[in-house]
Each structure stands twice: as structure tokens, then as C-alpha cells.
Automatic annotation (TrEMBL):
Keywords: Mitochondrion, Oxidoreductase, Transit peptide. It comes from the Eukaryota. Pfam families: ADH_N, ADH_zinc_N_2. PANTHER family: ALCOHOL DEHYDROGENASE RELATED, RETICULON-4-INTERACTING PROTEIN 1, MITOCHONDRIAL. SUPFAM superfamilies: GroES-like, NAD(P)-binding Rossmann-fold domains. It comes from Daphnia magna. Belongs to the zinc-containing alcohol dehydrogenase family. Quinone oxidoreductase subfamily. Signal peptide: none annotated. This is Reticulon-4-interacting protein 1, mitochondrial.
Length: 332
């Protein structure tokens, strides 16, 4: 996560929080004398970051999560600057860039920029799950969707997108988050801590699509899917990074393929499938999310805002699993 301008006044330099070893969040180091990147390609865009949001992967990586994929598959090495999405101002563009110019606000274009920063990564991950993997369209009348973990950054956006597209949405969350999720438009909210949560979910008669944003339930709750309806169970926590760490690149890939086949073997004859949701870059979807936000059809749920110097505290809060919406870092 980087910043320049007010954060670092030395000409041509910027500040960045960098991961230099896998010693946990406390091993993150604030470096204040890094050179500002230069435009080297006709498609490059240099952005002065004003706000960024914290994602789960950011909080896990300092402990070594995804280390094998990072180092062996992507050929990347420490130190690395963490951070997945942002909002800011364009400072310079390459000759081939036509849609942006210096001075433009980018990613979000909706004040305040804290809200803009909370949309990109979580929004595109939700979009990838619901549209690409889940098969939902912008007109999804009659589809019954369960969002497990609706109070998080991805879950809260997914809840709103499903409602916007006409689905009937049932959301699970903790007791203290119920008022927040109610304001997002969910048709029914189930407190997952309630002793009758499972029976309540069963009473809906099955779901066309389940988006599990928690990864904490014991097994995949296939029993909640509709029978013979091409029902889909989507999880945001695929095992591939853990498998790569545990078994190496080749072994991890084969173990992941085996896991997916084994999980679907008992489901496919009943027209059900398990799918793993991953972030997928999609410029048209990003523009659509921006338009939704500008038209007040999509409201980012902000849990808390930290300053750039408080980044470690923000990561600890994300890692605790108790955030209600997105955690945002403001640069100045």
C-alpha cells in the first residue's frame, strides 16, 4: 500500500508499507524513501492514491498464506507492497491511454473517496461469483439466493447486487450486524448464532444459489440447495493456496483438482455444483459497479477508516473476522 504527496514530501519519493518477511502483521515495515514509479509503457497509468481498502488476503499474506504461489508461480519476491484496490487521482498516463487523463478521479469517481476505495476488489469478486460462476443476470426474478456472511465487504455488496437484479435474498450474519444488513434490502436475515439457524434456513425450501463468504462452516451446506435445479454452491475460500503451501506447486495443483472433482462427484447427478469464486478483472463490470454507486443503487458498507500510519491496526481488525463491511485506509 503506497502513498505520495502529503505522506512523503521529498520530490520523486513515496511511502509504502512493505512485507519483507513472513513474520506476521507486525513485520510490515513503513518505508518512506521509495522512488515513485515511472511510466514505462504506452498503457501505464500513474495514480496518486487517496484511499485504499483492506482485503482478507492482505491480512493473511504476512503469515505466509499463498507464499508458494507468490514466489514460484508468479515469480515474485519480497519485499512486496500489499493492497488490492484504491481510489485516487491520475497524475500521468502513457501515450496509448485514451479513457483517462491527468487530474481525473479514478476508481469510484464518487465522493468521498473512502467509499470509492471500498468497491473495486470486493465488488468484482462478488460480480465474478454471482454473474460468471452463479449465472445470475441483471434480471433474476424468482431466483432464491443465500448470502452467508453478508456483513463483510463482499457479502454486503453481493446482497445489494442480488436485490438489484430481482432475486429473493436470504442473508446470514451475527446478531449485532442484523440492522446493517436489513438496511441493505435483504428479504430475510438469519442470525447464524441462533440455535435454530439451520432449521430456519431449511424452511425456505432450497436455494438456487448459495454464496459462502465465510469459509468457516463445517463442510459445504449442499443440503440447502434446491434439488434438480442446476443449483450452485459458491465459496470464496478455495483450497488452492493452502494446497500449494502444503504440497508444493505440482502436488498442490493435483490436490486442488482432486478436491474439486471429489466435492462435485456426489452433486452432479442431482444437478448441483460446487464452484470456487476468485477475483477476476473486468473493466465493464467495474464501470457498471461505478454507475450503481453513483446512482445510489449500491452503497458500500464501511466498517471503519484508518490513517496510513495505522495500517497495522487495520490489518489486525480485518484478521479478527469481526469487520462489518470494508476497512478503509486514507492516505492523508
Amino acid at each position: 500500500m503506497t502513498s505520495h504527496g502529503d505522506i512523503c514530501s521529498t520530490e520523486g519519493l513515496m511511502s509504502a508499507w512493505q512485507l519483507r518477511d513472513y513474520g506476521g502483521i507486525e513485520s510490515l515495515e513503513l518505508v518512506k524513501d521509495l522512488p515513485i514509479p515511472k511510466i514505462t509503457s504506452s498503457k501505464d497509468v500513474l495514480v496518486e492514491i487517496k484511499a485504499a481498502s483492506v482485503n482478507v488476503l492482505d491480512a493473511w499474506m504476512p503469515d505466509g498464506y499463498g507464499k508458494v504461489a507468490f514466489e514460484q508461480l508468479f515469480r515474485a519476491h519480497l519485499p512486496v507492497t500489499l493492497g488490492r484496490d484504491f481510489a485516487g487521482i491520475v497524475r500521468e498516463v502513457g501515450k496509448g491511454v485514451t479513457e483517462l487523463k491527468p487530474g481525473d478521479e479514478c476508481m469510484g469517481v464518487v465522493p468521498p473517496q473512502s467509499e470509492a476505495a471500498s468497491i473495486p476488489y470486493a465488488g468484482l469478486t462478488a460480480w465474478s461469483g454471482l454473474r460468471s460462476m452463479g449465472g445470475l443476470g441483471e434480471v433474476s426474478n424468482g431466483k432464491q439466493v443465500l448470502i452467508m456472511g453478508a456483513a463483510g465487504g463482499i457479502g454486503s455488496l453481493a446482497t445489494q447486487l442480488c436485490k438489484l437484479w430481482g432475486s429473493k435474498v436470504v442473508a446470514t450474519c451475527a446478531t449485532d450486524a442484523v440492522p446493517l444488513i436489513k438496511n441493505l434490502g435483504s428479504d430475510f436475515i438469519v442470525d447464524y448464532k441462533s440455535p435454530d439457524a439451520d432449521s430456519t434456513l431449511r424452511s425456505f425450501g432450497g436455494f438456487d444459489l448459495i454464496l459462502d463468504c465465510t469459509g468457516k462452516w463445517d463442510g459445504y451446506d449442499y443440503k440447502l440447495l434446491k434439488t434438480c435445479a442446476n443449483a450452485k454452491y459458491l465459496t470464496l475460500v478455495p483450497p488452492i493456496l493452502n494446497n500449494l503451501n502444503d504440497y508444493g506447486v505440482i502436488g498442490g495443483i493435483f490436490k486442488t483438482i482432486y478436491d474439486l472433482i471429489a466435492a462435485n462427484a456426489s452433486l452432479i447427478l442431482r444437478f448441483k455444483t460446487l464452484r470456487w469464486v476468485l477475483f477476476s478483472p473486468n473493466s465493464s463490470a467495474l464501470r457498471k459497479l461505478r454507475d450503481y454507486a453513483q446512482n445510489d443503487q449500491l452503497k458500500p458498507l464501511i466498517d471503519s477508516v484508518f490513517t496510513f500510519d495505522q495500517l497495522k491496526a487495520a490489518y489486525h481488525k480485518m484478521k479478527s473476522g469481526h469487520a462489518r463491511g470494508k476497512i478503509v485506509i486514507e492516505m492523508a
